[in-house]
Each structure stands twice: as C-alpha cells, then as structure tokens.
Write a structure and sequence with these properties.
Length: 99
C-alpha cells in the first residue's frame, strides 16, 4: 500500500511527521500548509524526509494555485528539487512517464 500524507504529513502536527522517516511506502504532499508552516520547518521536513517523497497538489489545496506556487517557490529549494516535487515524483509514483 502506498500512502500520500497530505499537508506535509500532518497538518499542525509537523513535529510528529519525522516518525515517518524511512518508510518507503509513505509520500507527502505540500497542499494547504505553507500559509501556516514556517519556511525553516518546511525545508527541514523536505530535507529530512527526502525531496523524492514530496509532491505538490495531490490533495487539492484550499487556496488558489496562484497563491500556493509562490509560497512553495519562496522556500528557496533548488530547481532540481522543485522539479521533483512539482512533477517528477508523481510521474514516477504513478508511472506516468517512460523515464
């Protein structure tokens, strides 16, 4: 079974999300959290849980994409990590690409 834990793995319970570290069947989504989650904590979660485990928008955000995308880009992650989270991880997980 594959699980996608929305809201960085536990809306408002982000310190507990580190318990999921290393679970190969657990992925995370960034939806509807960045308005409330401070930048440093968001970056730490992505870094420690693994950027290859995160996706953008699998759980429809409550906010407009035109607001959520700049919030995400404001984290200052590398272009490579942004590409993983915006598309490559979902393509791989859902087998949407031949790559």
């Amino acid at each position: 079974m594959v699980l996608i834990a929305a809201h960085f793995g536990g809306y408002s319970e982000w310190d507990n999300c580190f318990d999921y570290k290393g679970l190969k069947n657990v992925y995370f989504d960034t939806s509807s959290s960045l308005k409330f989650l401070d930048k440093e904590k968001a970056v730490k979660l992505i870094d420690e849980l693994g950027p290859e485990r995160f996706m953008f928008g699998t759980d429809y955000p409550m906010w407009k994409y035109s607001d959520e995308i700049p919030r995400f880009l404001n984290l200052g992650l590398s272009d490579e990590i942004n590409e993983l989270i915006f598309s490559k991880n979902a393509e791989k997980l859902f087998k949407l690409s031949d790559n």
